[in-house]
């Protein structure tokens, strides 16, 4: 006799296949937040109205993000009998053109295409898997993002979804934990603690009430891995959570998601409802007697609430402030009960481990870091986006192959990983493998997956100052070293970038940074000095130039640069004179001009306005005095 | 209580099993610098100054780490030297340092820690000092709050909530802008604060100071005369003048705690307006009289009243025995049950 789950599976597969192998063209539009901000809703609207107008019978589906942020809005068109074609940069106009040329006509418009997906070939279009952006990637956690309709649970089930839960429910807690142990999964939230060991603590802790919390309070500037996953494949998280709840003996789970993710919250709410309706969530899950409920708690946007104990305090309705450990949450967490907190990606990986097996999971990755990791690759790379790579891939491969190299082919300077808690890695370390331990050794952390690439135009002192300004603002103020230490370091960095740096400041930053790391109460303070310490380690010369020579070599820090007019090149066209908001340009018409350094506010308008054929205005490091 | 043995700075000590390293050290006269720890309150471990080096564990916050058999603890080490001074230096860079004129001078935990750790001017001068110009809240008649001296240890807040259950103050804002505030941030006199002053006596620095900080020449043990609780107090005197009152920590009735009257209401003692003789109203005016005259007058009046025409109101400032006699006198002699007492604080 078939079980209820098998019935659901058969039905889902039928639905999926009828879409995949049906007679109608299928159009997928990426309408996750990244797509929407690039205008994908207009694209969607255009596709719909155009299809209506032409009377073509096609299926248009909203999907999540496939990670090619640089090429949004993304549209994928699959015509029966052909591989799907993924198109980038499709605004409403181009959408109409695609309908006309490829849906109605037979021209696949290769100039807009990024690649084909699936079996078969289309002339002049590469297979997307063979493109340099996808080749080094192994997409597992993000596999379904962008290919399934996140609002349709049947799509998830037809692609293996909830089979992991089915399998887990046939196991004991110990067996599940054992599977996770074999898989080698480590926490994807940043610290890389072995997931099974954390679960074991909670499983062994005494208490009849235990809780599971999913940390979806993704707060690192420039990081959006969790958001994309929640928007593109919300059921993956729910499945992972029920499995985790089963393993640790919890009957209630909380998803702590930031309120700034409205679409993710909407998709989560819908997914929770669907899972409940199908009996994958709630009481008596899959008729096994196991009960697990999920509640969504919206966070109000404090970075520190990503810290486990502060997050717990926030759910309890208290100020989002960390609590000293021990006791650890696994022993005494939410409402004083044993609690496990896992990151979104960790829990989605748990679902994969149970669906595909622990061995399968650990096939990729490095010795101590198994599986894949998602990254938000941003900054000065040609192809920004959400990528998923096997652990152990080098930074060089990520930046130059997947990312396509540095924007405008400028020189690479540094890559920042781990957000405000991480550090910067210089060019000579580009062959560092991306895994927990190698990144730690290089002075940074894996973090939750933010990866910001910087080129010669980035001033490393200013970068450190930027991150410290962030952590200083986000410090909850509870413990002395973090509250006052981050402020003191920020004051010093402000002084350095504004020309008031003192020779002793480098040592002072190192001393305070070290003490703040060693003495702060929670992870925020313990890692806040990292951006400063790592840039001091690799880019000390930039600090020295700022302090000793009062120069910003990267021409970023306004107080440490000067604008100058090359009198040999200046023709006195007066464009700069007219543009200057500070009346700092002196000179008669048709005569070479000069910059009044006293008045100059370093806005750079003269530099921008000077026609390229003259190129008379130059920006140089250092503080010019009048007459220089 | 079961005892455990541990070693601190080479000294073997024994401590109750439920103590923390800091408590065990303090009980054995081993000083570990600390700011946010207070024996009466929850341990929050926010000042990070009480770090010690525990063999096999490294740097450990001693106020929350329980003692264990065989622990080897150092209150000073190379690593501690490197990190422990920094939070204290930072506190000084964010503190109004008018020490010599501060009411807390010589009794200040921050001063004590600075001295103990050997803070040097050269070290402090490298730092960026914050401008300390927050307004002082002097609205309360008995004490002032100076945020420019606050170290945000939270002792006042925990006192108000854990000991007094008043919750008049809490942390507001966050990060570097954190302040100790009343609800809505108004002056403390407009809050639900009852002016008990329990926070003031626990404040480790000069952020909460009584309005008068006259130091007594000596202290005399006494009992508060305000109500029937009978709190133990220590009256600070200069000659015959009472200049301060504090709770007697050894008294089992109040264990050092006092209310607003007991702590701050001693101004009447030396007040020139205080009554020193009985008054009798004559022709609508109160006129000083001798005790004999006053007692005779009262006795005459009482004799002339019927029992249902008289009520007796006794004072909490009398002893229990006096009050007993008064009610006995009322019922047995005056024949009235209308007896009351002011002991409602």
Task: Give the tags.
heterodimer; A: 628 residues; alpha/beta; Glutaredoxin; Rossmann fold; Ubiquitin-like (UB roll); 5 domains; 5-stranded mixed β-sheet; 24 helices; 16% strand; globular; B: 345 residues; alpha+beta; 3-stranded antiparallel β-sheet; 9 helices; elongated
Written overview of the protein:
The complex is a heterodimer of chains A (628) and B (345). Chain A contains 24 helices and 19 strands. Chain A has 628 residues and is an alpha/beta fold. Chain A folds into 5 domains: 4-134, 3-Layer(aba) Sandwich (Glutaredoxin); 161-361, NADH-ubiquinone oxidoreductase 51kDa subunit (Rossmann fold, 3-Layer(aba) Sandwich); 372-455, Ubiquitin-like (UB roll); 460-549, de novo design (two linked rop proteins) (Up-down Bundle), CATH 1.20.1440; 558-621, Alpha-Beta Plaits, CATH 3.30.70. A 5-stranded mixed beta sheet of chain A has the order 2-1-3-4-5. A 5-stranded mixed beta sheet of chain A has the order 8-9-7-6-10, with helices on both faces. Chain A has a 5-stranded mixed beta sheet with strand order 12-11-15-13-14. The radius of gyration of chain A is 27 Å and the shape is globular. The termini of chain A are far apart. The model of chain A has no long low-confidence stretch (mean pLDDT 94). Chain B is of the alpha+beta class. Chain B has 9 helices and 16 strands. In chain B, the strands form 6 sheets. In chain B, strands 2-1-5-3-4 form a 5-stranded mixed beta sheet, sandwiched between helices. In chain B, helix 2 packs across helix 3. The mean pLDDT of chain B is 94. Classes of the chains: A alpha/beta (628), B alpha+beta (345).
């Amino acid at each position: 006799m078939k079980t209820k789950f098998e019935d659901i599976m058969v039905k889902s597969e039928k639905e999926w296949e009828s879409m995949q192998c049906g007679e109608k063209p299928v159009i997928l539009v990426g309408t996750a937040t990244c797509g929407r901000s690039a205008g994908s809703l207009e694209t969607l609207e255009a596709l719909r109205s155009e299809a209506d107008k032409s009377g073509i019978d096609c299926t248009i589906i909203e999907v999540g993000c496939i990670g090619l942020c640089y090429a949004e809005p993304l549209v994928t068109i699959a015509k029966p009998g052909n591989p799907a074609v993924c198109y980038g940069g499709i605004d409403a106009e181009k959408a109409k053109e695609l309908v006309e040329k490829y849906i109605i006509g037979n021209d696949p418009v290769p100039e807009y295409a990024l690649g084909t997906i699936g079996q078969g070939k289309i002339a002049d279009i590469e297979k997307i898997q063979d493109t340099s952006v996808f080749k080094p990637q192994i997409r597992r956690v993000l596999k379904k993002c962008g290919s399934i309709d996140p609002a349709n649970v049947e799509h998830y089930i037809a692609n293996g979804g909830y089979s992991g839960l089915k399998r887990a429910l046939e196991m004991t807690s110990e067996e599940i934990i054992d599977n996770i142990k074999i898989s080698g999964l480590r926490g994807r939230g940043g610290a890389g603690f072995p997931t099974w060991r954390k679960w074991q603590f909670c499983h062994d802790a005494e208490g009849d009430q235990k809780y599971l919390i999913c940390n979806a309070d993704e707060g690192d500037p420039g990081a959006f891995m969790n958001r994309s996953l929640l928007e593109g494949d919300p059921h993956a998280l729910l499945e992972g959570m029920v499995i985790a709840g089963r393993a640790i003996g919890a009957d209630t789970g909380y998803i702590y998601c930031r309120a700034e993710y409205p679409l993710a919250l909407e998709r989560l709410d819908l997914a929770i409802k669907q899972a409940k309706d199908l009996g994958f969530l709630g009481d008596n899950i899959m008729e096994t007697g196991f009960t697990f409920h999920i509640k969504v708690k919206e966070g109000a946007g404090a970075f520190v609430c990503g810290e486990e104990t502060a997050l717990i305090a926030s759910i309890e309705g208290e100020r989002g402030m960390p609590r000293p450990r021990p006791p650890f949450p696994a022993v005494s967490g939410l409402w004083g009960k044993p609690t496990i907190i896992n990151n979104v990606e960790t829990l989605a990986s748990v679902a994969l481990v149970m669906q595909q097996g622990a061995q399968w999971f650990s096939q990729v990755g490095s010795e101590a870091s198994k599986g894949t990791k998602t990254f938000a690759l941003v900054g000065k790379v040609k192809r920004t986006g959400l990528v998923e790579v096997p652990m152990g891939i080098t930074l060089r491969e990520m930046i130059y192959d997947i990312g396509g190299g540095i924007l405008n082919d400028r020189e690479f300077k540094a890559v920042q990983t781990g957000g405000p808690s991480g550090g910067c890695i210089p060019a000579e370390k580009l062959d560092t493998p991306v895994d927990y331990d190698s990144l730690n050794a290089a002075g940074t952390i894996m973090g939750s997956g933010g990866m910001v690439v910087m080129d010669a135009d980035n001033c490393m002192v200013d970068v450190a100052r930027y991150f410290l300004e962030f952590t200083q603002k986000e410090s909850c103020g509870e413990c002395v070293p973090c509250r006052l230490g981050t402020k003191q370091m920020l004051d010093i960095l402000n002084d350095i970038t504004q020309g008031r740096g003192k020779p002793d400041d480098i040592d002072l930053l190192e001393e305070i940074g070290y003490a703040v790391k060693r003495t702060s109460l929670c992870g925020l303070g313990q890692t806040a000095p990292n951006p400063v310490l790592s840039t001091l380690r690799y880019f000390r010369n930039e600090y020295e130039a700022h302090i000793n020579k009062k120069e910003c070599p990267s021409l970023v820090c306004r107080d440490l640069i000067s604008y100058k007019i090359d009198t040999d090149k200046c023709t006195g066209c007066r464009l700069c004179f007219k543009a200057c908001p500070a009346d700092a340009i002196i000179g008669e018409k048709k005569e070479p001009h000069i910059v009044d350094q006293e008045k100059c506010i370093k806005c750079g308008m003269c530099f921008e306005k000077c026609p390229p054929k003259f190129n008379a205005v130059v920006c140089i490091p250092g503080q010019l005095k009048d007459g220089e | 209580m079961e005892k455990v043995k541990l070693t601190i700075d080479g000294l073997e000590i024994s401590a109750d099993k439920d103590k923390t390293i800091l408590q065990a050290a303090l009980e054995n006269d081993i000083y570990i610098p600390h700011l946010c720890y207070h024996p009466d309150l929850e341990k929050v471990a926010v000042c990070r100054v009480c770090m010690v080096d525990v063999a096999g564990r490294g740097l450990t916050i001693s106020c929350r780490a329980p003692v264990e058999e065989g622990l080897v603890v150092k209150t000073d080490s190379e690593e501690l030297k490197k990190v422990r001074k920094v939070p204290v230096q930072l506190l000084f860079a964010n503190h109004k340092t008018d020490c010599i004129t501060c009411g807390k001078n010589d009794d200040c935990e921050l001063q004590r820690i600075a001295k103990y750790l050997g803070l040097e001017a050269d070290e402090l001068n490298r730092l960026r000092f914050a401008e300390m110009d927050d307004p002082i809240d002097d609205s309360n008649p008995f004490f002032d709050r100076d945020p420019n001296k606050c170290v945000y240890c939270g002792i006042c807040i925990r006192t108000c909530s854990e000991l007094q259950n008043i919750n008049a103050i809490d942390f507001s804002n966050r990060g570097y802008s954190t302040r100790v505030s009343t609800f809505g941030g108004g002056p403390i006199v407009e809050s639900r604060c009852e002016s008990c002053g329990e926070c003031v006596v626990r404040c480790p620095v000069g952020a909460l100071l009584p309005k008068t900080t006259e130091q007594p020449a000596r202290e005399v043990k006494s009992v508060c005369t305000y109500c029937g609780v009978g709190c133990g107090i220590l009256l600070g005197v200069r000659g015959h003048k009472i200049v301060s009152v504090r709770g007697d920590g050894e008294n089992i009735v109040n264990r050092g705690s006092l209310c607003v009257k007991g702590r701050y209401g001693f101004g009447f003692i030396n007040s020139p307006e205080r009554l020193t003789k009985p008054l009798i109203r004559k022709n609508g005016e109160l006129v000083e009289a001798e005790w004999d005259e006053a007692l005779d007058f009262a006795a005459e009046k009482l004799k002339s009243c019927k029992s249902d025409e008289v009520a007796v109101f006794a004072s909490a400032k009398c002893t229990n025995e006096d009050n007993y006699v008064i009610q006995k006198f009322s019922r047995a002699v005056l024949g009235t049950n209308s007896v009351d007492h002011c002991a409602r604080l």
